[in-house]
């Protein structure tokens, strides 16, 4: 998968729609501000699938409408938990860890485009950010023959294009979203790539941004 080609295509798509959106006299948008929270799982792909497996994930963030068009700013914080099995711990170690756990703490800021069609909304986004990934590490003392399990912090940049569908239920939208998370860096000399799938709710707080007449 050529992530850079897909990123370029998404940017071109967003810019083409934003030009037409801001050039028209549109009414005050009804999707000015959402908060969002969701849960799901994240599927490791590529080299990550060799030593990680999906467990669960949680996400919190906001959707901030830009102007009166369809563009929005999408900052979010993601916590993904993976099974971390049979991974070699350290270059000079003869020990392997089974049934461990790796946890990500990643902040992403994206530019998105949303199209509302009756009770549904369809959106796509492209963003980047970073954070860190905690992976398990075992330290064995040769003197005491004792093993200590702790975490190694792996700093990671990410590029993340994605898309989602929302359904309006009144003052909020329920949504399902997926994306492709490409890590700029390695974990244990192997690349980090994953496909998060999230289901959740987005309360619509846009009334707070409407001017009273």
- Portion of residues in beta strands equals over 45%
**Percentage of helical residues?**
under 10%
Instruction: Kindly state the number of beta strands.
Output: 11
How many strands, what sense, and barrel or not for the largest sheet?
A: 9 strands, antiparallel
Tally of helical segments: 1
Poorly predicted runs are 11-26
Shape: elongated
Order of helices and strands: HEEEEEEEEEEE
Please compute the radius of gyration using only Cα atoms.
20 Å
Mean pLDDT: 82
What class do helices, strands and sheet pairing give? mainly beta
Task: Please specify the SSE layout and strand pairing.
Elements: H1 3-23, E1 33-44, E2 52-65, E3 71-84, E4 87-88, E5 96-97, E6 100-117, E7 120-140, E8 147-168, E9 172-179, E10 181-187, E11 190-203
Antiparallel strand pairs: 1-2, 1-11, 2-3, 3-6, 4-5, 6-7, 7-8, 8-9, 8-10, 9-11, 10-11
Explain what this protein looks like in three dimensions:
This protein has 213 residues and is mainly beta. Helices cover 10% and strands 63% of the residues. It has 1 helix and 11 strands, in the order H-E-E-E-E-E-E-E-E-E-E-E. It has one helix at residues 3-23; strands at residues 33-44, 52-65, 71-84, 87-88, 96-97, 100-117, 120-140, 147-168, 172-179, 181-187, 190-203. The strands form 2 sheets. Strands 1, 2, 3, 6, 7, 8, 9, 10 and 11 form a 9-stranded antiparallel sheet that branches. Strand 8 and strand 9 form a beta hairpin. The model is unreliable at 11-26 (pLDDT under 50).
